[in-house]
Amino acid sequence: MGMETYIQVLKNNRLKVTPRRKAIIGVFMKHGVRMGPYELYEKLKRKLPKLGLPTVYRILEELKDAGILVQSLAEDRRLRYALCACPDEHHHHFTCRKCKKVEEVEFCNFNGLSSFIEKNLNAKVESHNLQIEGLCARCR
Amino acid sequence: MGMETYIQVLKNNRLKVTPRRKAIIGVFMKHGVRMGPYELYEKLKRKLPKLGLPTVYRILEELKDAGILVQSLAEDRRLRYALCACPDEHHHHFTCRKCKKVEEVEFCNFNGLSSFIEKNLNAKVESHNLQIEGLCARCR
DNA sequence: TGGATAAATAGAAATGATTTCTATTTATAC
DNA sequence: GTATAAATAGAAATCATTTCTATTTATCCA
Ligand SMILES: [Mn+2]
Ligand SMILES: [Mn+2]
Ligand SMILES: [Zn+2]
Ligand SMILES: [Zn+2]
Fold this sequence. Notes:
The structure is a homodimer of 140-residue chains. The first copy, chain A, has 140 residues and is an alpha+beta fold. Chain A has one domain: Winged helix-like DNA-binding domain superfamily/Winged helix DNA-binding domain (Arc Repressor Mutant, subunit A, Orthogonal Bundle), CATH 1.10.10.10. The first copy, chain A, has five helices and five strands; from the N terminus they run H-H-H-H-E-E-E-E-H-E. The two termini of chain A are 26 Å apart. The A-B interface holds A 73, 77, 94, 96-97, 103, 105-107, 109, 112-113, 116-117, 120-137, 140 and B 73, 77, 94, 96-97, 103, 105-107, 109, 112-113, 116-117, 120-137, 140. The complex binds manganese (II) ion (2 copies) and zinc ion (2 copies). The structure holds a DNA duplex (30 and 30 nucleotides).
């Protein structure tokens, strides 16, 4: 997806198209990697010396709500975000342990899981969250 | 599993069998529910008025390392722990959104997932974490 | 094109879960 | 019982995240 598409998503969500928001999206587009608020802040403060860390936190949250980013918690329990190409289709993400690249995984055995639990526990599955880690093609 | 079994696990891990450790295990055995450090602290301070919150944090971590508890992060991003009956077998856990009961789920399509990713991304899957939520048989 | 307006932002400060530190207590081995 | 290392309480520190307020800015419209 190009920047123009993301700008349109911002507009659709009544978010102003600001230099800060474009810059943050730009960093994600450039690196294709999972990043935390402070990492983005560090990467951007050369270009935007007056950028504030709370602004980064807020923008990341807004971009998540707009469906541009997905949020996750890394093993250090801190916030991470990554671009998500198709937030409307149910899918998961694979993250490389070494380079942090995030790739879409269009595979999910939700039905099998759901019917197993339905049958064995007589419970109703309402959501599931799957985080997959490993080594990407380059890093393996 | 009974308390005696857990006491043996403590001994196997060179952890002393203290009233605090037994009390924390006891709360989990009694409730079968996912709990956070502060919740345990509150439940225990009648019986153990001198209990300190840092002690609860430390014991929970130790019990996790010993394989008695599993750690997770709830949606509020805070620590939660639950008993795990068979830490050696790969499996997942189902948590009831309403009553927080945790049940074992001996279902996992790891092979399918792994070979999908291997084929499509040419990546190597090293770990996955699946959290399943819904309503248990009683609460649904 | 410029002014009005609400949204966005910076910077300082607060928050609060979690961790660290140190003196004291306690479980365990002998 | 005593010695020992492990465990604990309580105070304090840490630090990621959030809140607050004054200022700036993107957007809309005359
Ligand atoms: Mn995605
Ligand atoms: Mn288990
Ligand atoms: Zn990689
Ligand atoms: Zn329930």
